[in-house]
Amino acid sequence: SYYLKESKGSRRWLLFLEGGWYCFNRENCDTRYDTMRRLMSSREWPATRVGTGILSSQPEENPHWWNANMVFIPYCSSDVWSGASSKSEKNEYAFMGALIIQEVIKELVGKGLSTAKVLLLAGSSAGGTGVLLNVDRVAEQLEEMGYQGIQVRGLADSGWFLDNKQYRRTDCIDTITCAPTEAIRRGIRYWNGIVPERCKLQFKEGEEWNCFFGYKIYPTLRCPVFVVQWLFDEAQLTVDNVHLTGQPVQEGQWLYIQNLGRELRNTLKDVTASFAPACLSHEIITRNHWTDIQVKGTSLPRALHCWDRSLHESNKNGKAPLKGCPIHLIDSCPWPHCNPSCPTIRDQFTGQEMNVIQFLMHMGFDVQKMAQQQGLEPSKLLGMLSSGS
Questions:
Q1: Catalytic residue among 78, 125, 158, 310, which?
Q2: Pseudo-torsion of CA 341, 343, 348, 354, nearest 10°?
Q3: pLDDT digit string (tens) for 21-58?
Q4: How far apart are CA 382 and CA 380, in angstroms?
Q5: 72 CB neighbour count, 10 Å cutoff
Q6: What sections of the protein cross the membrane (predicted)?
Q7: Alpha-carbon span 302 to 230, nearest angstrom
């Protein structure tokens, strides 16, 4: 199933892949079926949905894409959009993420996609990883169907995970505590997951799990992809077993979190088009506040517009990037929420909003000690923190 909002005058199509973790064995898929049925079956899906963020048809909420044809593809395959296995004697569940995308494309061709100029395959979280895994395949499918003129691009939001070492190692019991590499390794076998051929060739047989990690698959992609990633992604911290609830963060965790931001920043340095704010959050492009976040004075819709233009221009003449229209935007400040435009943080227990300083104190951040390390007066450091410099 999918949801479609047609925009008759437009030759731009935006296909959005929903996210929502995954399950990788019989037990945790059974649990998922009991507790999150809408992510495993279309039976209770609503007849219509309202698009928000980049799927909104309101120009003030979605300045550059509001009148595109919008397609929302709900996530019911639990396989990071990679599966290609039907239900069988051996398998209670069908995992068909990769096939669902192909079928939707086939059907949309008859609904106007055949005359499209641009198809933007976007997704958040597991849907963001799904974009990386499927964008080239969508381009190949359209070419084989004889639609060479459609420019296929990807927009991956919060799907650029690291296969780093967990803060505390845990056995792979459930989806949340299992280290990402182990979960994907098991998942690929369980889903009969497929990864793009060009990425697969980089790794030995049995090592295909590598292609689920952005920095490993990105260099093999043919289609242009814009990567949106919080430097301190909550889902990444969760699988790394850093839990920021209630009690102050210990120094080891604090160093781990800062290091995570550094590692992530490093993996994005060769990504041509990227937007990476130093915030603690997860998912952004379908949030209605997505226009508020800025990196180095540029908002995400503006950066995407610049990217659109740069692709348009480079098709013409291969010129240098457009002046005053940046597309490689990565925060350089070192800790969560050092960017003043980050979304508001709420205390998970009280629901109270916190400012940056309250948040850092709540996390056990020692202003005196940090100021000393930086060679600053504590009051000066607090001033810098609250202004985000």
A1: 125
A2: 30
A3: 999 999 999 999 999 999 999 999 999 999 999 999 99
A4: 5
A5: 19
A6: none
A7: 17
pTM of model > 0.85? yes
- Is residue 331 part of the annotated active site? The answer reads no
Of 56, 77, 282, 328, which one is the catalytic site residue? Answer: 282
* Domains of the chain by start residue, with CATH: 3-346 (3.40.50), 355-388 (no CATH)
- Residue with the two structure tokens 């395949």: 137
5 φ, ψ to 5°? -120, 110
Count of other CB atoms within 10 angstroms of residue 189 = 14
CA atoms within 13 A on the CB side of 180: 26
Residue 282 annotated among the catalytic residues of the structure: yes
pLDDT in tens, 204-235: 999 999 999 999 999 999 999 999 999 999 99
| Three-state helix/strand/coil letters over 352-376 | CEECHHHHHHHCCCCHHHHHHHHCC
**Residues 136, 157, 233, 331: which is the catalytic one?**
233
Helices (H), the chain: 26-35, 97-109, 126-144, 180-191, 197-200, 214-217, 234-239, 251-267, 300-317, 356-362, 367-374, 378-387
Angle at 293 between CA 291 and CA 295, to 5 degrees: 125
Backbone angles phi, psi at 84, to 5 degrees: -145, 45
Active site residue 125: yes
Calpha distance 67→69 (Å, rounded): 7
Cα distances from 138 to residues 73, 96, 154, 242, 311, in angstroms, run 14, 15, 10, 36, 18
